[in-house]
Amino acid sequence: MKGTGVQPEDCKYLTLSNRGNLTEYKMYFDSIGAVQTFLAGDPDINSEVFYELKSRTASVEFAGAPLPDAINYCIGGYSDNYDQFLSLAKQLEQVNKKNVRVRKTVTSFVGQRPNVPAYIAGAPKNMYRLDKTEEKKLKRIWMKVTYEASTTEEQIRNRGIIALNLINLLEMNNYMVDFRLFEVCSVDDEVFRCEIELKKPGQRLFPRLCYYPMCGKAFVRRVLCRIKESMPFKGGWGLSYGVVVNEKVTRMLMDIGDEDIYIGSPSEMNISGENIYIDADAFLDKIGISDKIVLPVYTDEAFINLNGG
What we know:
The protein is an alpha/beta fold.
């Protein structure tokens, strides 16, 4: 242990670069399991900058499960309020089912199965086939993992549910989705950038693996802090652990394109945490993709169901 943190030559996840007058420390993980692998190896701590290790000393009430548990939760086992999470997610899925785009069956010269009446009648188009699907398009979603200290657990939970629901909506509309969590923060002329890929294009979505990094406070207050404690920073990160930058600067530093979807903190996405249907409509209105896909109106469906329609 050198006491100066990890270096790019001995840490495959870390890249150091200069952007103007800024020094950028980029950690990229291609899965949540990679985060666990990195931290399970007890990477060197930059003790020259971090005199107190908040990843270890923060109270359970504030930061959640102790650090060893928080690290292991990255590969499963975190289930606090998960049943409620799934229950609310299913409520949105029930609304989505009314908006599924189903491929039509058409008659053709060739196909998957015969159209018997047409065959008997001698019609040339005597087979059934599914109509052609559009070429799949790629959509990348960036979700900021951090949030304001005043954010409630209900807000965090609802944002996670609605983010996964957005992925399902896009895939129902012939999109391939690349879903990534990130944090970007700075101290003076140093920038920390952490990027975690939760779902690759064409890969199946696993809600349980997404649940912990999206909704578990120990992930933000222990796991991410422990990653920062291993960065070879030069500045005064030990007090604040970095100041979160705004959306405009984030988009520039992360190279987030105009066609990409940016998911900010629950308050940025107008999520109150009180009603999943209202929050879902507010969230979708905020990201503005109604010109790309047909969106359900969740509050309308909730009103109909409430009144027995």
